[in-house]
Design a protein that fits this description.
Blueprint: E1 8-12, H1 17-28, E2 32-37, H2 40-52, E3 56-61, H3 67-81, E4 84-89, H4 105-129, E5 130-139, H5 152-173, E6 178-184, H6 217-228, E7 239-242
Helix pairs in contact: 1-2, 1-6, 3-4, 4-5
Length: 255
């Protein structure tokens, strides 16, 4: 599959989980990939996997909460590959579940920094640097569409990330660009306590999840690449659920 042949993609939080899966998919489908991660070793591991399959990739150490690091990772990507077409702003963090009244200001501020400030800085740089026809996807969450009573800081930040995407859509369209969000449900990633899985299956071999069931990182990555691709040219400013019907009906769990 060569839909992304000779295109350039930047993936934040690309060392593990959904970011790693998206980076590997981009590499397998012909893109040049910049894998940005706070953990340099994780980023280099994914780069080596891409190169082992004949792809081209670079690793960039970056803190998404830093204005300077956001600017640098876009500049380094352009310097390496001559331009940028796509950005998956995936990096973020979850908080430990606890009652709302027990959440500390430190936790709230951390969630806002990682899950809203970081994406804002990345969106701002993408608007400056992406070539016409390019696109951005921000990794939000089902927590951006409903309140999480025991993860109030996380949910607040993810609601803000969706507002960011919708608010930026006109500016992106005016530059022949697009921006959307993906809202994953329950995904088996290291962030959620699952082992890292670097296997990339042909799309026709992806299993259909059970109702409200656990999904793989590739389930999300496939939707991300679709939203970034020319096939989704008419989609802008939207939030796409990838949740195995988790939010489709009330009550949300089988009680």
């Amino acid at each position: 599959m060569t839909m992304f042949a000779n295109k350039v993609a930047l993936v934040t939080g690309g060392g593990l989980g959904m970011g790693a899966s998206a980076a590997l998919l981009f590499g397998a489908r012909g893109a040049f990939v910049a894998v940005a991660d706070l953990n340099q070793a994780h980023a280099e591991r994914v780069v080596n996997l891409i190169k082992a399959k004949g792809g081209k990739a670079i690793a960039i150490k970056a803190d998404i909460t830093s204005e300077a690091d956001n600017a640098r990772m876009f500049e380094e990507t352009k310097a390496a590959f001559g331009g940028i077409d796509y950005a998956f702003l995936n990096a973020g963090a979850v908080q430990a579940y606890r009652p709302f009244e027990e959440m500390t200001l430190e936790t709230f501020d951390k969630m806002i920094a990682l899950n809203l400030r970081g994406p804002y800085l990345g969106v701002r740089e993408a608007l400056k640097h992406l070539r016409p026809g390019g696109a951005v996807v921000v990794n939000a969450s089902t927590a951006g569409l409903m309140g999480f009573a025991d993860a109030g800081g996380y949910s607040s930040a993810k609601h803000g990330a969706l507002g960011l995407v919708k608010s930026a859509a006109r500016a992106f369209a005016n530059k022949k660009l697009r921006i959307n969000a993906v809202c994953p449900g329950q995904i088996a990633t290291p962030l959620n306590g699952a082992p890292q899985n670097d296997e990339i299956l042909p799309p026709e071999q992806l299993p259909v999840p059970e109702d409200r069931g656990l999904m793989s990182a590739q389930h999300v990555a496939e939707v991300v690449l679709f939203l970034l691709s020319p096939a989704a040219a008419g989609v802008n400013g939207q939030a796409q659920l990838v949740d195995a019907a988790l939010l489709s009906a009330f009550p949300p769990l089988n009680l």
